[in-house]
Please model this.
Amino acid sequence: MTTSNITFNAYKFWALDLTSYDSSTTYDLREWFKEVRIYESMFTSSMHVDIIIQDPENMLVTLPIVGQETVNIWLQAELNSAEILKLSMKVYSVTDIKTVNETIEYVLQLVTTDFTMNFEEKISRHVSGYGSSIASDIFNESDIDSNKFISVEQSMDEHDLVIPNMSPFRCINWLSSRCHNDTSTSYVFFENNREYMFKSIESFFDESIKYKYRGSGKNVNSYGTMKNQEEENRSLISYKVISRFNVIDNITKGMYASGVMSCDVVHRKVKKTTHSWYEDSEKYQVRKREIKSRLYPLMSKNPNSMLKYYPDNVMLVPHNQLNKYNISDNILKYNYGNQLFDNLKMNIEVSGNTSLAVGDLLEIEIPVKRPGNEVVRDEIYAGKWLIINITHIITRDSYIMSIDVAKDRIGLNL
Model:
């Protein structure tokens, strides 16, 4: 692998190498790429990459590219103390093949090597214990042999079951939907550019803020100077509120109130369990919340100042009192948590920063004008935001990131 530094505007590519399926040939793609997009998400178990290649040597035929090639990516943003993003990827598809100015152009679609290795193994065995411990053991004992570690938050659910012939990642995803503890709603399993995570969404808000951004336009004339570059890198290029609330989705998906009927046909018992935002939401506290923040959605719990929604959302699930775990134990708060974090979301566009990853916390300040041209901080959007998706967009001239962030707290006391 070639790791000599090639510096572009705002970033360095230490490596962008493609190695043939039989390891006999390696191409340095840094001279041939038109655009690189690196995707990471809290809701997928692996990262993936798209590279637009302008290929003067027609590797599709001369190499040839057959879908088993390895691509190593080492990327570093031109920021103080920026970490190097290191990825080992496998080619899984070639799309959009065309000729541009007599040069063949196409898109290499890549997925992490871990994800491809994951399909080489099936798990079919008896396991018992906490779901988080089972997930950790499966990851560490599998044949994937990842060079990344997995960070696990202890759950309180106990299992005694047989894993039914699943691949490791599918099994860990399945366990994440069953894990719960007293202070969280739903667990997620995903890969970011540093490690794998198996944690509750609420637990990420216990971490320190990784970076702070402010909504102000970039000063193009001063951006290239060392004096102003750090300040400019902390400015939002653009932002867009994706969603502030969706009352209909909150009603139909059981965020405000829902119930589950667990039916034990063997012992002829039926039990109804309910969950309500109005009564249960304060159970899911995080230690390092902003002092003045209030739980979303934008409503008060004062019964005289709001309309309460109590839809008849009841689902039927099987139950067996002999099992340590039943789906009725956590399905209501799992659905509640997923929908809660689907309300207040924003997309921001910022300068590339390889030190950021999905699961990090940002502080975002959006200035707004009040009557008399007074500029103040918008308290609705102030405070901690959780990164749930990142798209790193690298061209020959720039490196920017499109980041989706979410939160369940607002900075106002309603």
Notes: DSSP finds eight helices and 26 strands in the chain. The mean pLDDT is 84.
